[in-house]
Fold Phosphatidylglycerol--membrane-oligosaccharide glycerophosphotransferase.
Amino acid sequence: MLRRFFRTSSFKTHQWALLIIGLCLGYTVAVLTRLPLWTLLPIAALWVAAGLKWKWADPAALLRYRKVWPWSLVPLVLGGLYVYLAASFGNVDLGAVFFHLQAGMSEHGGSGRTVAAVLYTLSMVALLFSVTWLVRRDQRWRRAERFLALVLLAANPLLYGLGQRSASIVTDDGAWLERRYTPPVLSEQENPPNLLLMYLESIERTYADERFGEAYTSLDKLGETGVVFERVRQMDNTGWTMAGMIASQCGVPLMPAGLLHDRQFEPLSKVVPGVDCLGDILAERGYQLSYLGGASAQFAGKGLFYRGHGFDRVQGREELEPQLDDPDYTNSWGIYDDSLYDITVEEIRRLAAEDGPWGLVNLSITGHAPSGYPTRACRERQGEFDGQDILYSVECSTWLARNLIERLQAEGLLDNTLVVLMSDHLTMRVSVWDELITMDRDNTLIMLSDDLEPARIQRESSMLDVFPTLLDALGFTPEEGRAGLGVSLLRDSPATLVEKHGLEVINEHLQEETALQQRLWEGLAPKSRSSEEFPFDQMLETPADQADEIIISH
């Protein structure tokens, strides 16, 4: 059948081949340059016009048919994979790809992306058939596509990223971050506060800009009574949900286990077992800890992480759906946030009735890219949803969060409680993506407590600094304000890694780091080399590092 297809030679066939290649080329240019999607049409038209002018595989100018397989088929597939990831998520994070492959992607709610993946696959098949058809009929194409294969391989960011990962094995300094890691050393207190930690999916602080209307207004109102942190940046390996949670609760970037995982073809059994995180610290101090999330706790190792780091109750989609009054009121990811927050109120009532302090972490999904999952309550309040406008979903998410806090305050359930609202990461590709990427983006971080005076703190920082800041706000004062790779933003000093080195330098070192990766996955990985084997002295900072201290302003 394939042989018959490739031997078929009609005037229309070569035009179809040119059109398919032109459309794929136009789409790739639009995605990678972030041009409007409609620009793929003129690009495709120019391509087809060039093909007709130079008679690429035109039946009137055909050379003898040769059954050859193009060199560029594999590079085209790899390039198509990168374009799919860029179109779906905006920024392609190799760390996220590697981690999800090992932590597990079952029970995900991305049904829309599944459909997109099928369409991409069909488009790639059509592209490969078209290139093969032309190569077998035109000697010029046979010569040119070999060069094209090399260009595609050299230009693919996925292969460049893999090369960087491989180079880290032989780098001169694979412990730049490890030398800066500080295990939490904390003070104690007699009456520690409770903790409500709310992750608002993709609700970055950038949405507070006036260009986005009233989408962020509810969080602005809450921030007036608490501490608002600005300039909390996103470094590499912190840009997806589990990575954001681990960065903010453990003070480390989520470096995937990779080849350190001793059973490569089985899911991970633990998540970052080598470091003490917020849950470990609170559990040791008698906290009752719960995690609630509308999506499945099986997805991306969320359940493994929380159960392995001190949480008593971990409830995701599977545990929460039976608690719904209306079992049909769900979405592709799980339960809606108005249902999640109703259950959150019940869980806090239960925890408040127990002896000792409690901590509850919940994760929303209303703001999930690409268009969000606005709830029934928001539709009644905000009117009809067009299915695309992410600002509608952002406004819904922020309003729901404010409403929950006001409900809990009215019942007196937040007495002696630190409330933290934060984004898990910056948003991925959404309807206002073109506006977002031109802006100075940062994450949401707001803390509310009777012990914190309202303030607005502006410091160049990252999600790593959230961990010691949380500990400080809870009263477990970290020694010298340090924990993990972060420093407490409630203090004027020491300087954060971002203040001292900048995101670009940190991200470069992250690509080379091996020692911190060994620490994170201790117990699942081969034992790391002893300090005697490293060709450098263990120190917190080098003289060059110390030279760039800066003044911190509030």
